Amino acid sequence: MISPLAYVDPAAKLGKNVTVQPFAYIEGDVEIGDDCVIMSGARILNGTRMGKSNTVHHGSVLASTPQDFHYEGEDSLLVIGDKNEIRENVVIARATHKEGGTHIGNENFLMDGVHLCHDVHIGNHCVLGIRSMVAGESRVDDCTILSSNVIVQQNCHIGSWVLIQSGCRISKHVPPYVIMAGNPVQYHGINAVILQHKSDVNHITDRILRHIMNAYRLIYQGNFSLQDAVLKIEDQIPMSDEIHNILNFIREAKEIVR
Fold first, then answer.
1. Nearest CA to 64 among 25, 22, 10, 106?
2. Residues 126 and 142 sit within 8 Å (Cβ to Cβ)
3. How far is CA 163 from CA 101, 111, 126, 157, 179, in A?
4. Helix (H) or strand (E) holding 219
5. Ramachandran assignment for 85, one of left (phi > 0), alpha (psi -120 to 50 degrees), beta (any other)
6. 215 burial level (CB within 10 Å; 0-12, 13-18, 19+)
7. For strand 186-190 and strand 178-181, is the pairing parallel, antiparallel, or unpaired?
8. What is the pLDDT along the chain (258 residues), one digit of tens a residue?
9. β-sheet with 7-8: strand ranges across
């Protein structure tokens, strides 16, 4: 299932039923799990560790050299989970340092032209839209959607179940369960449609959705400092896993998009 027109270094480790199409290029320090498909023109470079059932489309480059002035030629890693769809012309850099790592979780969909820089962490079940870019050392948590042409600047943390609409530029942390839109980016309510979809699996009730909405009303519409908003949430909003997630995110982030 490896085309004779592809280049696969003899040192590369390929699992069972891996398909490598013509003119794909795979270097030696690479591990590819079972049932992956590497399409023509894709480049899988040193430092790639890929799980099972991933599809890498035409022209994508995995584990490219970090575009970071701190990079000094160290061997470093790009670690990819299972069942990811990596579409055409996606570029993902490996980590700057050996002890670091760029990490992509499971069942993500990376659309055409997505660029993920060094030491980025993407969770599970995320969708990254056409030409979206995530700068170095940023993190995108589970089940988040970045629409087309979103730019996430360095060291930003995007929470879980977030929707960021097309063309937004993110320069601060974005807490979970929200919609962000516009330039400059602003809060546009909670991601209710996706959260209701989540409720089919994890039993988020309408009551909890209202609590999430009320928590963010205190944060974004209450005319309070962020610290005071947190105190009011603790005092006024019944606790649930989702409210704990919001509070823990804000305490860790200290500064969010407002």
1. 25
2. yes
3. 25, 16, 10, 13, 5
4. helix 206-221
5. beta
6. buried
7. antiparallel
8. 899 999 999 999 999 999 999 999 999 999 999 999 999 999 999 999 999 999 999 999 999 999 999 999 999 999 999 999 999 999 999 999 999 999 999 999 999 999 999 999 999 999 999 999 999 999 999 999 999 999 999 999 999 999 999 999 999 999 999 999 999 999 999 999 888 876 555 667 889 999 999 999 999 998 899 999 999 999 999 999 999 999 999 999 978 998
9. 7-8, 25-26, 43-44, 61-64, 91-93, 115-116, 133-134, 151-152, 169-170
Indicate the Cα dihedral angle 8, 11, 16, 22, nearest 10°.
Answer: 0
Instruction: Using alpha carbons, select from 40, 100, 110 the residue that is nearest to residue 76.
Output: 100
**DSSP class of 173:** B
- In sequence order, the 6+-apart residues with CB closer than 8 A to the CB of 115 are 90, 91, 92, 132, 133, 134
Residue pair 124/106 in contact (Cβ under 8 Å)? The answer is yes
Q: How many CB atoms lie within 10 A of CB 182?
A: 12
Our CA angle for 247, 142, 31, nearest 5°, is 135
Tokens 């032209």 map to which residue? 113
Q: Output the six-digit token pair for 93.
A: 């850099």
